[in-house]
Every structure is written in structure tokens, then in C-alpha cells.
């Protein structure tokens, strides 16, 4: 069965690309455009991996990550944070809050796909 | 024994000496005689008694006269001489003993006079030495103060109580700029000799810095402390504290701190600028990441999946278009928002445009022997410029013009247009091609032997300006136009205004204040010479405060350590919110237009109270001014509770037999000349001078302390007049 990936980002233009890319790679894809919707989709869609943008309205990526990790049901869920902020301190924060990987925009799509695949294979 | 008593005693002794031997001999002879001999003697004597008595009395009188003469010469004369010598010792050392009396006394007098002369010479010598030492000390102090006043940093020296002993011009301007209130001194940035620094800087921070320095000194490190503080107006100040060490003897225990020097820098603007630069940087880097990320993802998708459906391909292309547009948009907005912060950090100073032109003219004249003239010069135009490179650039253009077109004369023109200054270099001659000018603009500049790697373009860019070539066809001439940013010369204008009032040496320092004892409030038993005073005067709409007359101007100066501080003044017009009486306008020279829009009394009074905090108030005919202030007590809640001295009353105490104690009359009596009168600030200055002259006169009358002065004032006749 194909792995399920949830894409969370408030910018539709990047969502289009990511959705297209992940579908082409054979994943089962769902999309959320803000933090609250993301939490709801985590519960209903039960993804294996979340591509989570940090800067979002309502709930930030950090908050979503914390909430996801607070629920033991999501222990096996992989979280990849996407951010437009490249500072070391934020990377450290994301990882400390329970993200499994941290990818800074702009990123190479090939590397992202490779990373996602590797993480899902390892899990 | 008194000389008189001794004289009487001597007279008695003389009388006894003249009659005694005869009487004793007579008695002895009488006792030895027979009865018959006695009868015969009596008969013989009785008949001759009158002549004997007369002779004796005559002898006695002659004796008395001689005695008196001797007394006069040797006793009274010497007493007089002693008195004269006392006088020479004390009051007047140029006095001399008169040479009179017998030769011995005269010799004594001569010897005393010679001694006095010798002493005089010694004293003169000592005085001269003291004066020399004082003069050199004073000169040193003046030199130090002059040096300080020229520093570009704001410097303030305080004693341990935080009282200001010295501040320089920069400090004054800086704190003046901090005082952003409706009145001349509002905003809590009062700087003044003898004032507390804690009205400007946080006391706890200053104390902490002092403690840091003490600890550093104790461990043998250099005494130095830094801190950043926020003013009441929200400005950020970086302060550096260095101790003033007293009694620092080589090799002794750690030196003792007697005061401190503060250098103060307002870093609000540089911090703000830095923050804005950060924002720009952030907006350009972090802000581009998301858009770039989207772009990159879309582009790779297009490249990696060339066989995607046309619909999807179309969509990706649109995304790329959108994101690229958004990025350029952001770039434009950032540049617009932050253009000020993005200017180079080249240090530009505020200079008068005409100064730049004058400097350029001199340079061109020296270098090229090329005469120049000016036309249409705006002499009040301040420019933000690096004068050296700008003058260099102008001279460079002149050189090029002379080389290429052999021009014989240059003209300069300077005009302001909004926030821009136009500086034109004009010449008559053939048209030049724009290409030529472009080459000149971009080549490294050269002035005979001097070269610089900078081009004209570089200099212009540094100034955030522009330069171009233009022809005035009608006049057959052409010009280069420099467009430069205009500076707002606020501080310069302020400085000029105050300088006009302050003649003589600057009053930004008083090192005697090192010994100045701190006082909370005002101590009535302090000497008049040791107190700090605020001398003030008000101008009003009329003479009847109870009938609705109002204050229209308050002027005040401070007296610290027996000096009038002409630079530390309070001078504020007040809007009385009613029309002025036309008949009063010639007296104070203040018109309705002048007071309209000025702060009202409820705004001015708090600032004035702050100005005269912890000082004794002085006014001429103070009862009148105080009545106006007291009538405002209810509406403003501002009370002036400190002691008030009245120069009118003090003058009456000092010269009780003089008829008039009007300010004009007193000024004349005390030999004080004041240029202008009847405006609040000049009258305050006059009153302050009067007070300082009255203090020694009062001291002669036994009035030394504030309490004595207040009591004496109350007792004078004038005190009974009520306004």
C-alpha cells in the first residue's frame, strides 16, 4: 500500500508543486492550508508523513508539531518541517519540538523526495 | 593704669615734692623753737605768706605744664603711634606714622615706618605670587573648559552627589534636543551647574556604575564603567563613566573617587537605523525564501516531467510568473521603504552651502588662478555633505573645464528647492557633449598633484545626490548642477541664539562645586553666598491678577555659587487666552500674535517649577509676581513653597535712607548697566545682578543667612504694602 503524505502550507503555489510531485512519486496525498485543518487531517487521513510549513495563519508549524507529538497515537508519524527561515536557532527549535527533519526553502525537489523516501523506508 | 589717672598721680606727686620739704622743715623748726621765737616767726611769716604762696603756685603751674608736655610727647604720642601701627597692621597697610614729637619718638616712628615698608614689600610679593598662581590655575581651568566645549562628545562632570560641575556645549545641545516638550525646558532633560544629573539619568544605574568603578579600582584595574539608559522620553543613551580621583598619591592605598566624568551618546537613532537595516536584510533574504522555494519546485517539476498534461503545465508556468512578479514587487517595496537606511554609511556633516562654495572658490583660485563669482546665493541653506570630497569634486570639474575649454571665469549659484539644494557651476563657452561629461563623471579624480581613486560619480553617490550638465541657451552659457540633500540645522540655530545672550567666558563649569554640599530642599540657616537661586520675572496683561489679569511671559535665570548662569535660562511666552490690553503692549513689547499658540499657563508652570526646584526664588517686588503664581495654585495644583527673597525689600534693608527702590534706580545706584529692560528675561538678569551686589552690603549689616535676610525684609516698612 502506498504511503500517505499530508502537505500543510498556506501558500497554494507551493502546494500545487508539492502535491504534483508527491503524487508522481506514487504517494497518497492530502492537503491542508492552515494549522487547524492540518490537525484535523492528521486525525482523519492518518498520514505516515507530514510536510509542515512553519509560517502559517491560525496555528504555526511549531504549534502543530507540538500538538501532534502530544498525542501518543501519532508516535509513528514522521514530521518534516518546511521553513523560509534559515536560522540555526529555528532548526534547533523545530527538532526539539519533535520534527524528524527540517528543510529550508528554497529546496531541491529531488533531495526532498529522496529524503521523504529514505525516512519512510527507515520507519 | 590709664594715662589720665597716671597724669593726676604725677601732678599730686609734683605738688607734694614742691610743698613737702618746706612744710616738714617748718614743723621740725617749729618744734625746736621757744615761745618768743615762735611769735616772732609767725609775725614774720604772716606778712610774707602771700608772696610765698604765689611763688609756690607759680612753680607748681610751671611744673604741671612741663609734666603735661612730657606726657603729651611720650605717653599720648606713643599711644597714638600704637593706634596708627594697629591700623597699619589691619585696615590700611599703606598708612604711615606721622613724624612728630621729640627726636627719640620721631626715631621710633621712623623705624616703625621702615619696618612697615619692608612688610609691605613682602606682602606685595606674596600677593603677586598668589595672584600668579591663581591666574595660572584659572587659565588651566579655562583651557580645560574650552577644550571640553569643543569636543564632539557630550561630556558632563559631576561630584559624588550627582551635582553637575561641568558640561560642554554638545551635552547642552544634546539634552536640549531631548527635551521634547511644549516649553523651552520641558521633557525632564534639565542640565545645569549644580543641578542633579539624576533628573536625566537613572540614579540606580549611576550608583551601580560608581560601585563597579570602586571595585575595579580596589582590584587595581582602570576605573571605567559603561551603561545604556533610557530617558523619560524613550531615548537611548550610552553612558561611559570615568572617575575623578582625589588624593591619588603614588603607592598609597587605592585612590578615592571625588566625582566622575560622564560621556553621553544618544544612540537611539543609530539603534533605530541598525534595526531598519536588519529589517531590510531580513526582508530581502528570509522574505525571498518562500517565493524562491515555490519557483524552484515549479521549475523542477516542469523540467523533470516534460510529459505532464498541458493543463498542469499551464498552471506551473502561471505559478512561476506569479511568484517572479511577487518577488520583484517585494524588492521594489523594500527599496522604497528603506531607501534611507540603504544609503551608504559615509559620514556626512551639516554644513552651510555658502561655506562649501567659498572653500571651492579659494581652492580653484589657488590651484588654477581661475577667478570666480557668485550669483543668487541662498546663504541660509544647510547641506548634508562631506565638505572635503565635495570641494575636491568641484575643483576637479573646474580643472577639466579649464583644460578643455580654456574658460576664464566661473560662477556659482546656490538655491534651495524643498529638501534639495542646487549648487550650480556656471561658465560661458561652447557646448560640450554628454559623452565627455560621462567620462569625467567616471574617471578617478585628479587635482594637479593630488589624486583620489574616487570618481565624481562616487562622491555624488556618497551624498545621495545627483549631478548633470545643462545649457542655458539664452545666456550662451552652461552649468553643472549638483543636487544635494538639505540638512535641518536645528542645533546650529539654537546655539547661535543662546550665544548672543552669553557674553564673556562660558559658564558651563564651576569646579568649586566639587566642595558643594548637597541639600534637600532649602536650609534657612545657610549663608546667602552658599545657596542656589532662581531669579525670575513675569510679564502680565495688567496689574490686577484678581481682576483677571494673566501671566504672558516667565523669564528666569539661575545663580549658582555666586554667579549668574546666563546660559541656563527659562524664557517662555504664555498664552493668556484673552486679549492683551493695548496700553500695556508698549511696556513689555509682547503682542497678541506673539502669545497666540504658545503653551498655556497650566503647561508652563510645571516646567517652571521643575526649573526652580530646590532653589530660593528671587524677584523684584516679588509680592506682585508671587500673587499671580498663587492665584494659579488652585487650578494647576502647582505650589511654589520655597522661600522667596525680594530685591526691593533687600535694597530697603541695605540702604534704608534711600527714597526709591525701583529697579531702575537701584541699577543706577549699584552701577549696573543692562542693555534692554522690561522683558521678563532681561529683568531677571538685572535683578540677579542687583542681588549679588546686595549680598556683601547685607553682610556689613550683620545679615548673613537666608533666615536673617527674610526676617530683615519682613521688618522693613515696605513689607507692609500689599498688592
> Any idea what the radius of gyration of chain A is?
13 Å
Strand order in the sheet with the most strands of chain A:
2-1-3-4-5
Shape of chain B: elongated
State the end-to-end distance of chain A: 15 Å
Determine the oligomeric state from the structure.
heterodimer
Task: For the largest sheet of chain B, list the strands in their spatial order.
Answer: 2-1-5-4-3
Q: How much strand of chain A?
A: 15-25%
Could you explain how this protein is built, in words?
The complex is a heterodimer of chains A (123) and B (723). Helix content of chain A is 46%, strand content 20%. With 123 residues, chain A is α/β, with parallel strands linked by helices. A five-stranded parallel sheet of chain A has the order 2-1-3-4-5, sandwiched between helices. In chain A, helix 1 links the parallel strand 1 and strand 2. Chain A is globular, with a radius of gyration of 13 Å. Chain B has 723 residues and is of the alpha+beta class. In chain B, strand 13 and strand 14 form a beta hairpin. The longest helix of chain B is centred in the N-terminal third of the chain and has 55 residues. About 2% of the residues of chain B have low confidence. At the A-B interface, helix 1 of A face helix 6 and helix 7 of B.
What is the topology?
The complex is a heterodimer of chains A (123) and B (723).
Chain A: E1 4-8, H1 12-24, E2 28-32, H2 35-45, E3 49-53, H3 61-70, E4 78-83, H4 88-96, E5 101-104, H5 109-122
Parallel strand pairs in A: 1-2, 1-3, 3-4, 4-5
Helix pairs in contact in A: 2-3
Chain B: H1 3-32, H2 35-89, H3 103-150, E1 154-159, E2 164-167, H4 169-178, H5 203-218, E3 225-230, E4 236-246, E5 256-266, H6 268-304, H7 310-337, H8 339-342, E6 349-352, H9 353-368, E7 372-377, E8 382-385, H10 387-405, E9 410-417, E10 420-428, H11 434-442, E11 444-447, E12 450-455, H12 456-462, E13 466-472, E14 477-485, H13 490-501, E15 533-540, E16 551-560, E17 563-573, H14 585-588, H15 592-595, H16 601-611, E18 616-619, H17 622-631, H18 633-636, E19 644-646, H19 647-654, H20 663-669, H21 680-700, H22 706-715
Parallel strand pairs in B: 7-9, 15-18, 18-19
Antiparallel strand pairs in B: 1-2, 1-5, 3-4, 4-5, 6-8, 9-10, 10-14, 11-12, 13-14, 15-16, 16-17
Amino acid at each position: 500500500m502506498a504511503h500517505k503524505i499530508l502537505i500543510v502550507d498556506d501558500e497554494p503555489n507551493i502546494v500545487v508543486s508539492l502535491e504534483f510531485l508527491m503524487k508522481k512519486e506514487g504517494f497518497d496525498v492530502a492537503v491542508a492550508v492552515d494549522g487547524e485543518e492540518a490537525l484535523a487531517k492528521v486525525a482523519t487521513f492518518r498520514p505516515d508523513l507530514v510536510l509542515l510549513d512553519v509560517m502559517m495563519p491560525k496555528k504555526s508549524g511549531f504549534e502543530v508539531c507540538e500538538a501532534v507529538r502530544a498525542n501518543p497515537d501519532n508516535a509513528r508519524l514522521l514530521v518534516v518541517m518546511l521553513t523560509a527561515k534559515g536560522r540555526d536557532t529555528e532548526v534547533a527549535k523545530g527538532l526539539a519540538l519533535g520534527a524528524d527533519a527540517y528543510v529550508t526553502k528554497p529546496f531541491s525537489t529531488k533531495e526532498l523526495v529522496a529524503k521523504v523516501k529514505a525516512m519512510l523506508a527507515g520507519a | 593704669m590709664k594715662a589720665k589717672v597716671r597724669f593726676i598721680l604725677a601732678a599730686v606727686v609734683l605738688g607734694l615734692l614742691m610743698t613737702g620739704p618746706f612744710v616738714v622743715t617748718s614743723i621740725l623748726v617749729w618744734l625746736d623753737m621757744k615761745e618768743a621765737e615762735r611769735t616772732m616767726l609767725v609775725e614774720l611769716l604772716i606778712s610774707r605768706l602771700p608772696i610765698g604762696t604765689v611763688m609756690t603756685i607759680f612753680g607748681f603751674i610751671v611744673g604741671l605744664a612741663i609734666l603735661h608736655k612730657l606726657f603729651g610727647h611720650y605717653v599720648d604720642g606713643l599711644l597714638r603711634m600704637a593706634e596708627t601701627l594697629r591700623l597699619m597692621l589691619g585696615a590700611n597697610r599703606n598708612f604711615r606714622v606721622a613724624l612728630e614729637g621729640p627726636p627719640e619718638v620721631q626715631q621710633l616712628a621712623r623705624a616703625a615706618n621702615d619696618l612697615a615698608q619692608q612688610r609691605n614689600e613682602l606682602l606685595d610679593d606674596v600677593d603677586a605670587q598668589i595672584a600668579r598662581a591663581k591666574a595660572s590655575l584659572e587659565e588651566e581651568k579655562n583651557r580645560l573648559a574650552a577644550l571640553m566645549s569643543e569636543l564632539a562628545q557630550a561630556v558632563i562632570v559631576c561630584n559624588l552627589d550627582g551635582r553637575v560641575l561641568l558640561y560642554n556645549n554638545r551635552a547642552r545641545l544634546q539634552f536640549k534636543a531631548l527635551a521634547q516638550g511644549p516649553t523651552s525646558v520641558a521633557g525632564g532633560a534639565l542640565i545645569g551647574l549644580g543641578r542633579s544629573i539624576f533628573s536625566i539619568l537613572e540614579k540606580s544605574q549611576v550608583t551601580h556604575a560608581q560601585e563597579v568603578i570602586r571595585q575595579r579600582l580596589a582590584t587595581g584595574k582602570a576605573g571605567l564603567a559603561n551603561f545604556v539608559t533610557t530617558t523619560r522620553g524613550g531615548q537611548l543613551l550610552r553612558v561611559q563613566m570615568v572617575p575623578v580621583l582625589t588624593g591619588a598619591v603614588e603607592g598609597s592605598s587605592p585612590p578615592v573617587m571625588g566625582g566622575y566624568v560622564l560621556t553621553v551618546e544618544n544612540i537611539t537613532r543609530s539603534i533605530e537605523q541598525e534595526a531598519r537595516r536588519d529589517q531590510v536584510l531580513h526582508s530581502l533574504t528570509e522574505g525571498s525564501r518562500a517565493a524562491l522555494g515555490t519557483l524552484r519546485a515549479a521549475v523542477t517539476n516542469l523540467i523533470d516531467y516534460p510529459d505532464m498534461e498541458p493543463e498542469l503545465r499551464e498552471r506551473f508556468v502561471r505559478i512561476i510568473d506569479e511568484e517572479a512578479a511577487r518577488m520583484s514587487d517585494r524588492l521594489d517595496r523594500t527599496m522604497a521603504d528603506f531607501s534611507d537606511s540603504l544609503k551608504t554609511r559615509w559620514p556626512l556633516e551639516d554644513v552651510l552651502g555658502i561655506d562649501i562654495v567659498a572653500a571651492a572658490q579659494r581652492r580653484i583660485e589657488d590651484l588654477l588662478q581661475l577667478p570666480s563669482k557668485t550669483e543668487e546665493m541662498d546663504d541660509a541653506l544647510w547641506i548634508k555633505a562631506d565638505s572635503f570630497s565635495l570641494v575636491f569634486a568641484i575643483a576637479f570639474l573646474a580643472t577639466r573645464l579649464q583644460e578643455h575649454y580654456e574658460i576664464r571665469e566661473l560662477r556659482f549659484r546656490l538655491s534651495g528647492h524643498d529638501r534639495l539644494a542646487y549648487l550650480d557651476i556656471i561658465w560661458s563657452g561652447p557646448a560640450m557633449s554628454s559623452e565627455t561629461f560621462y567620462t569625467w563623471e567616471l574617471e578617478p579624480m585628479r587635482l594637479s598633484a593630488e589624486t583620489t581613486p574616487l570618481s565624481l560619480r562616487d562622491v555624488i553617490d556618497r551624498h545621495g545626490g545627483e549631478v548633470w550638465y545643462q545649457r542655458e541657451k539664452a545666456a550662451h552659457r552652461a552649468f553643472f548642477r549638483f543636487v544635494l540633500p538639505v540638512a535641518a540645522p536645528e542645533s546650529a540655530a539654537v546655539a547661535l541664539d543662546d550665544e548672543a545672550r552669553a557674553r564673556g567666558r562660558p559658564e558651563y563649569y564651576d569646579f568649586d562645586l566639587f566642595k558643594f554640599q548637597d541639600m534637600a530642599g532649602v536650609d534657612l540657616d545657610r549663608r546667602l553666598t552658599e545657596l542656589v537661586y532662581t531669579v525670575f520675572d513675569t510679564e502680565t496683561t495688567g496689574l490686577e491678577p484678581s481682576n483677571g489679569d494673566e501671566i504672558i511671559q516667565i523669564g528666569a535665570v539661575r545663580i549658582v555659587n555666586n554667579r549668574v548662569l546666563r546660559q541656563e535660562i527659562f524664557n517662555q511666552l504664555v498664552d493668556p487666552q484673552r486679549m492683551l490690553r493695548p496700553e500695556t503692549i508698549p511696556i513689555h513689547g509682547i503682542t497678541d500674535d506673539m502669545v497666540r499658540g504658545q503653551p498655556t499657563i497650566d503647561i508652563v508652570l510645571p516646567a517652571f517649577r521643575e526649573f526652580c526646584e530646590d532653589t530660593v526664588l528671587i524677584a523684584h517686588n516679588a509680592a506682585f509676581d508671587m500673587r499671580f503664581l498663587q492665584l494659579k495654585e488652585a487650578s494647576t495644583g502647582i505650589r511654589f513653597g520655597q522661600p522667596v527673597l525680594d530685591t526691593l525689600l533687600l535694597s530697603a534693608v541695605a540702604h534704608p535712607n534711600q527714597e526709591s527702590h525701583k529697579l531702575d534706580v537701584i541699577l543706577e545706584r549699584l552701577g549696573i548697566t543692562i542693555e534692554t529692560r522690561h522683558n521678563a528675561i532681561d529683568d531677571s538678569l538685572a535683578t540677579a545682578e542687583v542681588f549679588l551686589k546686595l549680598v556683601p552690603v547685607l553682610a556689613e549689616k550683620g545679615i548673613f543667612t537666608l533666615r536673617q535676610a527674610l526676617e530683615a525684609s519682613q521688618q522693613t516698612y515696605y513689607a507692609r504694602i500689599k498688592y
